């Protein structure tokens, strides 16, 4: 399993453990495939969040423009960018697995289900 698949597996296991604790049972394959997994890495999310914060700061201070409408647009745009950075891009595991080779997809699913079952004690 390469580095990309390993990161995906860790994110899927984390989401699966959270879902299993909420549902109070070990997830089956259908439930694992319906999990939403973060696909946008942390570093770009942080950078996007900082850009949004800079937009908000510049809108509040009025540094680039003196127009109230432009300042309001910067603040609103910055808030939207910060929200995007906070939630990132999430995809269902089934849509991610559909783009993988069948042997890699099977290995990933069995690894995720096994790791969730090992981590959750019911």
UniProtKB/TrEMBL annotation:
The keyword Transmembrane helix applies. It comes from the Bacteria. Keywords: Membrane, Transmembrane, Transmembrane helix. The chain crosses the membrane at residues 42-63, 69-89. This is Uncharacterized protein.
């Amino acid at each position: 399993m390469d580095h990309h698949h390993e990161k995906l597996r860790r994110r899927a296991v984390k989401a699966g453990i959270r879902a299993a604790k909420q549902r109070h049972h070990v997830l089956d394959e259908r439930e694992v495939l319906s999990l939403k997994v973060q696909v946008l890495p942390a570093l770009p999310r942080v950078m996007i969040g900082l850009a949004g914060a800079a937009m908000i700061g510049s809108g509040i201070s009025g540094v680039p423009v003196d127009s109230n409408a432009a300042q309001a647009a910067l603040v609103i745009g910055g808030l939207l960018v910060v929200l995007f950075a906070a939630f990132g891009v999430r995809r269902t595991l089934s849509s991610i697995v559909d783009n993988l080779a069948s042997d890699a997809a099977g290995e990933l699913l069995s690894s995720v289900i096994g790791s969730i079952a090992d981590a959750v004690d019911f």
